C-alpha cells in the first residue's frame, strides 16, 4: 500500500488518539459533557459507569443504518473507520486519568484544543467520527435550506443542555466552551480562513483526469485552451474548485493518471454555486 493510500488512515488514527486523550484526561476527569454520540455515551458513563468507547459503537449502529439508507454506502464506509478507531482508543486510554483541575476553565480550554486538533486531522483527510455528523447530514436531506453547521450545533446544544441534569449547569456551560474551542481549532487546521482551493492542472492527459475527477470527486472541471510559451504546443488546461479536505484526494487522482502533471493550487476568496454555497444532490454520498 502506497503512502498516499495509507495517509488518511494514519491521520484518522492519530486524530482519534488525540481526541481520546482529550476525552479521558480532560472531559471525563473533570466530569464535562460533550455533544453528539460521544456526549450521550459520556452521560451513560457518569450515570452507570459504562465503557465510553463501547457505547459509542453501540449508539452508532442505528445511526449508521439510517445513514446507509439515506446517504448511501460510500459515505458510511469513510465514516466507519474513524468511529471505530476513536471508540477503541477511548476505551484503551480510559485508565489515563488525572486529578480534576483546580482552575475549572483549563479543562475545557486544553481539552477543546486537543480534541480540535484530533478532529481537524480526521476531517483534513475526509474522515469523520460518525454520530452527530451523520444525523446532521440525514436531516439536511429533508431540509435543504438549512446549513449543515446549524444542524450540528442544534444536535450538540440539545445533548449538552440535557447533560446539565447529570453534570450540573456549570459543567454544561464549561462544555459549551470546550465545543467552541474545538470548533475553532478544527477550522484553523482545515483552512485557516479559506476552505476552498482553485486548482489548475496541466497534463498531457486532460480527458482521463477530467473523467476521474467527475467519477470520484463529482466536481465540475473547466477546460481552458492553452499554448506552451516555449514549446508552442496547444493543449488543454484544467480548472477545478474543491474543498480543502478534497485536495489530498485530487492530488492522488491526478498522479495516478499522470505522474508528470503540473498542479497549481491557490486560495479561492469566495465560491458561490452548487456544491459550495448550497448542496449538490449528485455529491450527497461523497460529502465527509
From TrEMBL:
Question: Taking the first listed entry, what is the main subcellular location of this protein, grouped into a coarse class?
Answer: membrane
CDD domains, per the entry: YitT_C
Q: Does the keyword Iron apply?
A: no
Membrane topology label? Multi-pass membrane protein
Give one Pfam family: YitT_membrane
What keywords were assigned to this record? Answer: Cell membrane, Membrane, Transmembrane, Transmembrane helix
Q: Where in the cell is it found?
A: Cell membrane
Give any Gene Ontology cellular component.
plasma membrane
Q: Which InterPro entries match?
A: DUF2179, N-reg_PII/ATP_PRibTrfase_C, UPF0750_membrane, YitT
Q: Which domain of life is it from?
A: Bacteria
> What transmembrane ranges does the database entry give?
none
What is this protein called in UniProt? Uncharacterized protein
